[in-house]
Predict the structure.
Amino acid sequence: MRTSPRCAKSSTPHRARLRSPAPGSDEPYDLDLSFSNAKVNNGKPIVVGTTHRVSVPVTYSVKHAVSVDITADDFLLEVEIYRGAYDESGNVLFSDHAPSCTANSSTTATCKGTIDVYPQDELRNEDAGTWKAIGVAIAWNGVNPEDLDPDWSKVGSVYQDGLGTAKLQRYSRLTVNASPEPVKKGKTVTVTGLLSHANWDTGTYTGYTSQPVQLQFRKKTSDTYTTLKTVKSDSKGNPKTTTTATVDGYFRYSFAGTSTTPAVKATGDYVDVQ
């Protein structure tokens, strides 16, 4: 029973969270509902930049007792992802809206929802990596979640952990500049660039240091890039190397990615060889 410590989202009935009951008060009853077949973002990493909200799809199935009305206005149903512990010490990402569920029978349904991520409010650099998925269902049954002393015996809840994982990554950028342009055949071409990724602590993009980056080239008459060499980005995220000019074509840098930062390729920089 928790509220995300970095949450700036709506507190609509759907979004209302369970507070811990006061000592000696009744506990919510165990809701007869279970989750299965959960998938976050179709199994792909969730890539987040510095400012814009990212919304990704979540699908899952639920099985419940006939008496459980998952369509009620004050019924919270969703799959969330969390990092750390699922309590006040961790971080949780969830949806802005109620899911859309299609009944398959009187006791089963297939649901589609979202996870909505606000990097400025909800993420720190340490949050990049693997998150765990958990199913959450709360039947408020007319109880006002804002009451200071609600009747917890009327509230049902279930938290089903172990529904899978999702990877959260920091959006990456990569640039390239080859010079001089034009250049004489057989002369040296210097290729510089910048590999950067989202810094959720500062809300900016900062250099990704000491990372292997491939220098690639394709001839003007070709559609295929060939790797010439691999260099590492420096202490500011800048890869730099030299090569020999042979024919007209495009130079680019290519980064294979890491567990916390996705792969990215720079747009090719054309060099006229004379």
